[in-house]
Write the structure tokens for this entry.
Amino acid sequence: MKVIALTGEIGAGKSAAAKVLEALGGVRLDADKIALSLWQRKDIKDKAVTRWGKNILDDEFNIIFAEIAKIIFNSSEEYKFCCELLHPVVMQELAAKVNELKAFNNYNFIVAEVPLLFEVDNKLWRSWVDYILFIAADKAVRFQRCRERGWDDGELSRRESYYLPSFARKAHSDFIINNDRDLEYLIQELADLLSKLNIKIKN
């Protein structure tokens, strides 16, 4: 069972591509969902509160993600701390899920959506990833999609500044799909890719 690691530019449509691949017969793993779940762990939460204070918690002692975003996307030092806190654990959980799925072998392939794949030490994922798919889009398109999320243009640029440059990420990817057009185009591109990889598509 092949594993496709799916990454790409902010606002390019990584999640849309992952959903399409899931519909085409893959099982989808989402690094962001795993990261969100980790914030419920006492050890993770305690380290964050020790670092950033209790203002990151609401009245029920749950993490306020908007407060964390304000902190980490305005300081490279705090961003690095957050990555070091979460990324190794996220990758361990992804690797465990991949191994579990491969043991049952009930799916045609696995798609692991990992937005920060290249920002993580590749020793944490290289052994279980077969192909890297990079989703790109014109910056004007990405700005518009991010506006629909409620972001201003500065927010996209600010967050993107913490990523490796797109040209470097593309250079390390096996396949690149430009997702500037409609959903039908994306579906066809992804179906063609699976065919190229000799991966059976779900009927």
